[in-house]
Amino acid sequence: MKTATISETKNNLSALLARVRAGETVLILDRETPVARLEPVRPGKDVDQDIRLGRLEREGKIHRGTGMPSPAILKSLPVRPASGADILKALLEEREEGR
What we know:
3 strands
């Protein structure tokens, strides 16, 4: 993996992007601390997924999360299964019902 400082990145962005297009990943460093990564985009998966998620968000069908769960979720205790419950059986029944 190629590494480049911020100033090297600013001065040689075209060359670094050429390396990325060729499949290489470039790690950007700020005073020896990694701060960013340039990596090739996988056209079939990354781009299609971003386009699809953007469309769904514009249509109001989804809202992308911030990555942090709601504080209420963190405060609540998880649901405990009933004594003798069979999670695999419940999962298979759910799949058969098409839920």
